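Self-study notes.
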Amino acid sequence: MNKRNISILLLIVILLSLLAGCVSPAGTANSTAATDDYIDDGVFRPKFRMVVCSDIHITDEANIRTERLKNMLSQMNDYASSNPDDYGRIDALCIVGDIGHDGTVAEWELAKKVLDEGMSEETQLVITTGNHDYYNFAQASKTEFEKIFGADAAQQHIQIGGYDFITVNFDENGTNCSDSVVQWVNEEVKKATETSGSNKPVFVFQHIGNEDTVLGTCSHFQSGNNKNLKPIYAQYPNVVNFSGHTHYLQNDDCSIHQKDFTSIGTGTLNYTMRQYNGPEEIPIENKTEVSQVWVIELDGRHKMRLKVWDVLQEKFLGEDRYIESYEKENFVYTEDRFTSDQLFFPEGAVPEVTNVTNDSVSLEFPRTAPESLNGRVYRVDIWTADGSVVDGQLIGINYFDGKYDEKVSVEFTGLEPNTEYKAKVFAINGLYCVNIADFSKTFYSTPIEVTFKTK
């Protein structure tokens, strides 16, 4: 080989070495790389937006559930077109199961029609089945579902805007998944996390949540193979797992859970669920007056902003929440972040006696303060002057509406005439558990109280 050829060969080797040094090693590509126009000045600027909801339970054209789906799509399009934070589009609409109430072709076709008519062309649909979607066809539901919503829609791994989206189909009656599904999830999550890097989220959608994560999952025990999904996600802290099924609220303090990975509850476009005192269901008024979706936005560094949209009130509820890192040591929505002194009434609050007779009393009291943990349940006890409790009630309210100025009312009868009593009111929150009788997880506020005398 002559000197000229040797020189050319050396030049090629040097160039290849330089190029190799510029390539990120496998598993870290794009992990924290900012977009070209990212400005590090503390201002959140969305570069990606998705709407996430669950439990549509659509039935027929005339049903209120159809109207709510139409309204949600219209409102989200209006929100995007208003160009908030200089970003005017919705990149993905994600629906986490229970599309139809009875799992019929007619219900799915109606949902597809509403979605086609209401979604913007630039928005990509991400959808999977729920247990209700298996009511009619059982084992054939996935096949029939995908005839309507597209091949592999119920279980697929796709990319949208540079982010991985994985939908999980519970192929055994919509409540359990087979060995093949568990194996597929393991393979696809591994692929996604290896290419995404440590600080870029991988989105996974499944109808029934993982046990002991978001609110309500403690009451939906994961039997069979479902329990094998959680250990898969636990290997990858950048997994963000969305689930529905529980119908608990997105503006609840416990709708986001972080331990080994991030779990997010997707609420419902329909009725909410109740709290329990052991086996006793605590009634809640206006449980159907709830219709919520997530508006989730990511900026050029994959920082996530989560906003709760109320479809019925046509406004955002509560404060925005943020996930800034997908590394376990930086998780903020952990179970141990709560203390009992975070559950409290407004300063100076007292119950008000609105009516008293010789044997009854009517009381009115405020909800917990907006900056407090949610008062999901209230306990009112009636005490005699000697310190005996003669009566008590547990009251569930529609705390999900964000109307903190509205008072809670209660009435007691069967009291003794011309007798002095004291009413004590406690706010109760079961944290991530729905059973307030589980005292290891339940907080009681400092009570507010009032003394009264029957006539």
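Second protein, same conventions, sequence then structure:
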Amino acid sequence: MTDLTVWLEATGAVSAAGGLGYAKIRAPRVYWSLVGMPVTWGRFALSYRSTMDVCGLTVQPSGLRAFMTRNVARREVQPVPPKVRRVRGTSTGLRVTLRLPAGLEPADLIASSERLRHAWGVHSVTVTETKPGYVELRMTGYDVLRRVRMPRGAQPRGMVVPVALREDGTAFERDYRAAPMALTLGANQSGKSMYQRNLIKGLAQLPVALVGIDCKRGVEQTAYASRLSALVTSPDDAASLLGVLVAEMEDRFDLLSRHGVSDLWELPESTRPVPVVVLVDEIAELFLISSKKDEERRERIVTALIRLAQMARAVGIHLEICGQRFGSDLGKGATMLRAQLTGRVVHRVNDKQTAEMGLNDLAPDAVPVASLIPMERPGTAVAADSSGGWSKIRTPNTTRDEVVAVCRAFAHLVPDLPVLAPFRPAAPVVPAPVAGPSLVKPRPVTP
């Protein structure tokens, strides 16, 4: 009986260890909740003060505190680390709220985030300022970008579209009111088209007008025609469409002037025009010319794009521009247009200069990260904005058929804009199933 008990206990221990090993690889959220989080929480609690001290994240106490410690408590005066206000666990990591003492700023913790990551044995540490004097350490226990799973609450709303997953486990959202114009760069097979798919999938569910400019003969955007208010597939048509959008922008400014407001969202809902999102698939096709006679068309396109990027935010017209490169080598007006694009997303690129085009003027620290994105991680990118902050993101794998199905399901949301009617694409015809031969073998009925 004793031998049987020992054998059962040993078998149970081996099975449990094997189950944890399997969960660590196939179900990292389960493994983190059962093993990783308690171990990391304990390591953090035991080594917090010493870790902050060796990382140079402590300051000398105030004179009053030093006096009370030395003369009342009869203890040696020690440097003061940031005070821990709150620690909470999540399915992907830990969130620690810190109160910064006088003499420390969030940049000090950001500079030491890599050392904190190694000290506490987590996958990454991201520092976010929540309010003056407070920061949040977002520790991620495992590589959440290896298998992307969007948070359940990440749903399109207002003018906000969740597009990807950040390295800290939160959703990266494309907020058109905060960053009305954006630029997405990436080499072939980097996941740039996947990013645009997720963007269109979210935008299709919102009451907005979608305008597509796809000069690759429409191979990327034609499938979404059921939800598009306009679609052009050649530079000549793009020039005409952009001219119409500039005229629409001017009419909307007249509307704002008549109501005495300066922003589309200040108008009464009954008179507020529908927002417009312009999706440019490959910006280089609008800039490059093959002969002298195309220069006039190029000037019209570039001028219209720059005018829209500079002023259209107030009237609810937004630009979403994609390309492989976007620098001065495209010609006159390229850098001026790029400077107006607030949001930046850079996927894997073929050279460092392309990463600098998208990130160097906003977040120089992110350029090396974008330059080292591996080829076997399509969809991984670096997202930055004018605040100077940046984050590593990855888009979920969304098939073309999924996006097409969403566009058809929300085709009724296509707004009635007469100015875009000449450019409205024909909705693709869904072929009816062809009746094939019956697979049921008939049997004679005998009386």
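Instructor comment on the second fold: The chain is about 35% helix and 20% strand.
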